[in-house]
Design brief:
mainly alpha, 62 residues
């Protein structure tokens, strides 16, 4: 049980850092994805394809 919690915790930290790094590069284009529970949770569950989907949704809506 503790091992599963640690794996989930690592994923959450990694995905938060991933969104932060994306925001560093995308700030010049004004395409920032907010770091909150929903975006980090979606990225933790679905992985990299969700990051691409969030970027596409942001471009379509913006």
């Amino acid at each position: 049980m503790l091992k599963k919690f640690l794996v989930l915790f690592k994923k959450v930290i990694y995905n938060t850092f991933l969104i932060y790094c994306y925001n560093l590069f995308a700030i010049s284009l004004n395409l920032i994805i907010p770091i909150n529970v929903i975006t980090v949770g979606l990225l933790t569950i679905f992985g990299y394809p969700m990051l691409i989907s969030l970027i596409v949704i942001l471009i379509l809506v913006y």
